[in-house]
# Entry
Amino acid sequence: MSVAKVLKSFPRTFWVANTIELFERWAWYGFFMLFANYLTGSSDAGGLEFTQSQKGVIMGVGTGILYFLPVITGSIADKFGYKRVLFLSFLIYISAFILLPQLDTYTGVFIAYLYLALGAALFKPIVSATVAKTTQDENSSIGFGIFYMMVNIGAFFGPLVTLLFKGSQLIFYISAAMILVNFILLLFFDEPKTPEEKEEAAGNSFWNLIQTLLASTVIFMSLFGIFLVIWLIERPLFIVRLFFPYGEQIAFRWARFVNTLPIGESNKSVFNNTTGIFKDTKFITFLVIVSGFWTMYLQLFFTLPVFIAQWVDTSSVYAFFSEYMPFFSDNYGMANGQMEAEFITNFDALFIIVFQIIVSSVVMRMKPLSSMMVGFLVCAIGMTLTLVTQNVVFTIAAMFIFSIGEMAGSPKITEYIGRIAPADKKAIYMGYSFIPVFIGNVLAGLISGDVYQKISDKVEFVRAEAMSLNLSIPTGLSNNAYFDTVAQKMNMSSVELTRHLWEKYHPSQIWYVIFSIGLIAVIALFFYDRFLIKDSSSK
# Structure
């Protein structure tokens, strides 16, 4: 079948769903790529001046929950209908984007971001499910290729638009406007369901949808949270069980007890599917290993924008664009002759758009585990190299290395899960591939928070330097004003003080942490492949 015939074979709902995905990713990345520096940036540049630790908690926990909740929201979408759940998702999205810039306290921003994450969690499983339902074996490869292309186009252009308004509340309102476009597209979205399924969904009111969402979220998070704590506590007890066997593990006894509670059949089904996965030791081991990759990968959003803004000299890129492409220096440069940090990190999305097909064609014949090992290692090397220098050209080159590893390893995770899943549980296994992304976000938040603050945070270092020299600095200054005042009292320019802090405090040492996580994931995956996986056909 020719490409033209394949493209014509997709129904209207397929194209509408992918266009909705494009605008949703545009809205999300337009805000999210700038979020780390918004939380920690100087108040005179539109930032909130939260600590790195506070930023890590907000982004780690909030985004982690976003990837955890789809196990609930997916089943809710099946019950109440995709269109209705999309409408609620867009409503939450827009109200959250309007609410966020009105808040400037840690608690307020954290709660608002959790609210935003709920809207994203409602959206996340629907478009991919729609693509799956509107494609067949002969066109699914191209269908999902189009889907991922839409994701990357949105991820690339979103930050380019919002960066034009960095420092103002408009970045949030632009994201809200992108979601508003999806309300119009929703008019052309047809449920990819059978008439019987549509009739069943129509019988449930919008108010019932909201009630079910709130109740299911609280019930599932509470009951599964207890199961997870018990399961984790029991892991070190395997030696005790060798000498004093006590039968079925307590965690699964709790799971059987939950099935006797009046929580509704839908909640029981989701709970049983989730806890049942924990009986597959090989699968859980794989998910834990892959969470190391996501922890390292997510530093692209959590740590790198802050590191570049604080430490990397981007003046050479500014000078290049100023001479040859002034549009970019005029719109994405700053008054001090530097480029916006997010403009630099956005090169990753550009590299993926340009090189994804080439990299995919190279690794398509590799076994998923082999491709993942190579990809994870290259990705770890690339992310490490972005953090070892103040030379922006070196940083961009390192990001290219990082993107090659990302393109080689990340898509193979889903492919591998599809291969190892039992024939009658493929949908369940694919649905729970969110676990490593959830874990990765939480751990990435910890590293970009407390760890970064202690090892690499420029704000902490300049305050420590001022204290060590007994400098008298006025109170109430913004982070930028405080830094400039210290530089002035030390008879240095801001560039000279940055260089002094770099050489004295060695903020690049955070690369040890990030590379170690990536390397451990690669080594663990190697041993998983060699010693835990016996059936070569599963690879």
Remarks:
- The mean pLDDT is 89.
